[in-house]
Each structure stands twice: as structure tokens, then as C-alpha cells.
Amino acid sequence: MKQKKCIIIGAGIGGLATAVRMAARNYSVIVLEKNNRPGGKIHQIQRDGFRFDTGPSLFTLPNLVTELLDLGSDSSGSKFRFKKLKNVCRYFYDDGTTINVPENPTDFAKEIEKKTGEPAENILNYLKTASDRYLSSADLFIFNSLKNIISSARKKQPGELMPLLKVKPLRTMHNENQRIFRSPQVIQIFDRYATYNGSSPYKASSMLNMIAHLEHNEGAFFPEKGMYSIVEAVYQKALSLGVEFKFEKKVTGLTSKDGRITKVIADEEEFNADLVISDMDVNTFYRDSGRRLKMPRSVRKPSLSSSALIFYWGMRRSFPQLDVHNILFSSDYAGEFRSIFKEHQLFDDPTVYIFISSKIVESDAPKGQENWFVMINAPSTDQAGMQDSVDKARRKIIEKIQRTLKFDPQPDILFEEVATPQTIETNTGSWKGALYGNNSNSIWSAFLRHQNKSKEFGNLFFTGGSVHPGGGIPLCLASAAIVEKEIEQL
Under a CB-based contact definition with an 8 Å cutoff, are residues 220 and 365 in contact? Predict the structure, then answer.
């Protein structure tokens, strides 16, 4: 029997995962990627003995990767190695407070009580609620297509849905956290999870407070060879299943007939297709490769997620006061999100994230030195990429480090690489540099997110962080699984 041809546009983690799934189902799979390597937002920089992961740095639900690698006859999931972080994150505040986040929730609760006076019981109850919400909703919302949510919910027992029925979705993440906790520092810790999909805790629904469950109850992990090794493992898996990759092939158009996409055009070369799966940012897709297709309302008037401004610093020495993941909080969190989403400007006192993979992967930096990934949230506009804005932001970050950590990092910076919203857009195809497509700054955002199957064309599907269920490695892998289920039903 002749193999059906599946063309995948883009080799981000969602496209790679979908390629593996379709090849395991005996499709002939070709992946067209405009860049010269796989990974999309997950890439790496190597310079002067330093290695930097350029994209996502937090790794949760590692079983989604190992399960993917175990598909087909050649099982390779056990070859992909990772470890659980003993300390999930370290938080720093301008008043000198430092809060460690041990992997054990009880130890975390004790640390919170010791440092802030917030009762440990409040933390544990909050994490239990987050766990209940996640377990009640995961197979409905995260690992399920939007069109099947209601029918799937009807199959649930009333008790299984009770945690969701208790949610007040019109209440924002911040409002709920403010009702539960008395410590402003603790409120800020749990408000931060809105940034995991590029949103504001002052606008996003309290339903998203369940995100904390993954990091605190399930745990944070790290691949033995760094985040880019996730891409390398899935890419090698795809190759072993016969997937063909064509790099530096930009898709420029689609040909359709009778409600189906029949050909994908890339650099004037045509590829016949029985199935087409786009891993492009959906806002870019409809303005570029799929510009002749009917544009959905969520794409016509997108409410974009935040972007980022990132400095990659090769540091001359090591800094024992820092961990793998570090957050230097803004003293005006509400002002920071107002600046990003309302004023579309970088904030003068930004929250600074410092990720140092060499703390756990020693080969990522020369001995006695460190690789710093230094990031602040930025608006998904062209303004944040202007050189004067970048220079000003760099000064503000330096000032923040000096004020909070009590040292000046500048003398120890051996070299610097920079990523702006514009370079993120250019390198990854993210519309205006938005890291997660549209934001979740309303109760309806999750339901208005672009679905995984086209309503216009019966053989066109969508995967990746800009479509349902959202951004981040676990959700991109979930989108690939949803696409596979949708294709099964054809």
C-alpha cells in the first residue's frame, strides 16, 4: 500500500514531535525548515568554551519526552537522561530577602514561613488546590482538542470535576493569590506563573494558578546535556523513523483544491501532500505561507503575549550565591506588567531572570567560570528592539544586580550576545517576537486559541506553542499528540 505523504512546516519541538508521531504511523514525512538546524526557539550558542541554551530553560513533565522517544520499534527513551533539581529556583528581593525553593513542597513551605512569616499550611493548601485543578483538567484541556472538551467532560464523574467547579474564573491570578496569602513576597512568587505563557497575573484567569503544580509538586528537571539535547534526541528519533528534513527551505505558499491542501511550495519547489501540519507561529503562518487562507478572528486581531530581551554573558568567575534558576523580582510588579501590556515599553525596574546551566552541566562553561542567560520580559513590539532601549535595559539590569545581589557583574563579563524581540521574530518566525503567540489575559483566551485542526481545510493541522494548548515544551508536545488524535479520526 502506498504511503501517505505528510508535509510538516517547521522543525520546532512541536513539529519534531509531530514528525515522530506520524512516521511511527507509517506516513512518509518531510519536514521543511527555513533555518539550517532544528529546534525553533530551542537553540544553543557556543562560543569560547561556553554553551548557552537560547530558549526555554525550565523542564517539566519529562515523561512526555521519553514516551515520544519510545514510539516505534526503536525505543530510545531510556537513552535520554535528565535529573531532578534539588533546588527549583532562588528568589531575590530588593529588601535583601532570599527564598530558596527546595524540590520537596513541605520544605518549600517551611522556607516560606521562615523567610516571610506566611504560614506553611497556606502554601501546602495552595499547592494541593493547584494539584487538584491540574489533575481534574489536564485530560480535558491540555491533552484534548478544544472541540472535544464538552463531550469529554460529560464522561467524567461529578467528583472528578469538583475542583474545576470551585474555580472562580473571572477572578484574576493576582486577586486569588492576594486573597490566600498575606505576604507580598509570596503573592509575587505565585503571580509569576502568568509569565509561563507570556501573560499578566493582573489579567489572566485564576484557573492558571494550577501551573504552580508542575514545578512544585511534579518537580523541575534538567537534561544531562542541557535543554538543546531535547531537540537533538527527538531529531535523531525522527531520523531513525525515516523522516526527511530539508533545511533552509522557506515555505512560501500552499495550493488547495476541493477543501484540501494539495501542495506545499518552498523556494519554488512543490511538495505533494496528503496531510499538511504547520509548526509555524500561527500569526505568522496566516500572514506568510498561508496568506491566501481565511484568517481567523484571533489572528486578525491578535492579543499578543510578551516577548523577551536576553543577554548571554560569558562570566569570568563563578557566583556561589546563585543557583541554576534565579529571579530578581521587581519592586513594582503591577507597574512592570502595565508597562509591558498597556504602555508597550520596557520597565525601568524589570524582574530579572538569571539561568546558569553550568551549575549543573559543568561542560557548559570553562572551569571556574559560568554561562549567564539574563532575561527580562519585553513587549512584543518593535520598540523594545531599538538599540537605545537595549542599552538602557542593560544598564537597568546591571543596576538591579548591584542593588539586589550586592556586586557589579560588569568586570566579569568576558563577552556578550543579545536577543531582542526583532531577532526572536527573525530567527524563530514568532510574530512581532511574541514568545507564545497570543496571551491569556482573559477568561476566554484558552477557548479562543487557534485549534489544532483547520476548519477550512480537512487535511491541514497546527502544532506548536502558538496554538492549543499553549507554549512551553510540555504543551508543544501535547499539541503534537492532539494532532495525531485528530488525524486518527479522519
Answer: no
Burial of 480 (0-12, 13-18, 19+ CB in 10 A): buried
Grid cell, residue 80, equals 535520554
Contact 322, 357 (CB under 8 A): no
Strand spans (E) along 171-306: 221-223, 244-247, 251-257, 260-266, 269-272, 275-278
Residue 102, φ and ψ in degrees, nearest 5: -65, 160
Which 3 state secondary structure label does DSSP give 149?
A: helix
Judged against a pLDDT cut of 90, whether residue 429 lies above it is answered with yes
Closest CA to 21 of 69, 60, 61, 63: 69
Q: How many residues does the chain have?
A: 490
**Please, what sign has the CA dihedral across residues 448, 305, 60, 207?**
negative
Do the Cβ atoms of 235 and 250 come closer than 8 Å? no
* pLDDT reported for residue 297: 87
Calpha distance 321→303 (Å, rounded): 38
Give the model confidence (pLDDT) of 14-38 as tens digits: 999 999 999 999 999 999 999 999 9
* Gyration radius (Cα) of the chain, Å: 22
* Residue 400 in grid coordinates: 538591579
| CA gap 279, 401 in Å, rounded | 37
- C-alpha cell of 55? 530558549
Assessment of whether the complete model's pTM goes beyond 0.90: yes
Give residue-wise pLDDT tens across range 49-102: 999 999 999 999 999 999 999 998 777 878 999 999 999 999 999 999 999 999
d(CA 67, CA 399): 44
Pairing of strands 275-278, 460-462: parallel
Contact 307, 424 (CB under 8 A): yes
pLDDT in tens, 205-232: 999 999 999 999 999 999 999 999 999 9
CA distance 426 to 303: 20
Phi-psi region of 267 (alpha: psi -120 to 50; beta: other; left: phi over 0): left
Cα–chain center distance at 446: 15
Please give the C-alpha separations between residue 444 and each of 140, 154, 441, in angstroms, as whole numbers. 16, 21, 8
Give the pLDDT of residue 386: 67
Q: Report yes or no: 360 and 323 within 8 Å, Cβ to Cβ.
A: no
